[in-house]
Amino acid sequence: MSEQIPDVEIEETGSRGRYVLRGPDGAEAEMTFTKVGDNQIIIDHTGVPDAFRGQGAGLRLVTRAVEDARAAGKLIIPLCPFAAAQFKRHPEWADVLKKQG
Which positions ≥6 away from 64 have C-beta within 8 Å? Predict the structure, then answer.
């Protein structure tokens, strides 16, 4: 049985925001971020409930943030361990990764 995969939505409030995937049962996979100035965001948390496990939900959230950052000319600081691991696995995202040090 193939369920419709929801679109990633973005919610922003002031300097904070989140990317969210909503499941049909009300479950939410989210990745929160904080804006730093006009051209950087910090990804600080990724949470994927059991309802989304094994569906690539976390990767979809990070990928959307990368696409948005690229389109807006922003850099990402992945403080969240999951997001940091995804950046290591995807060297093609280096153009939006804020270099540390």
Answer: 8, 10, 19
Counting Cβ atoms within 10 Å, is residue 35 exposed (0-12), middle (13-18) or buried (19+)?
A: middle
pLDDT in tens, the chain (101 residues): 345 567 999 999 999 999 999 988 899 999 999 999 999 999 999 999 999 989 999 999 999 999 999 999 999 999 999 999 999 999 999 999 998 66
Q: Nearest Cα to 49, choosing from 24, 29, 63, 31?
A: 29
CA dist 66 to 21, 27, 82, Å? 16, 23, 14
Q: What are phi and psi of 55, to 5 degrees?
A: -110, 5
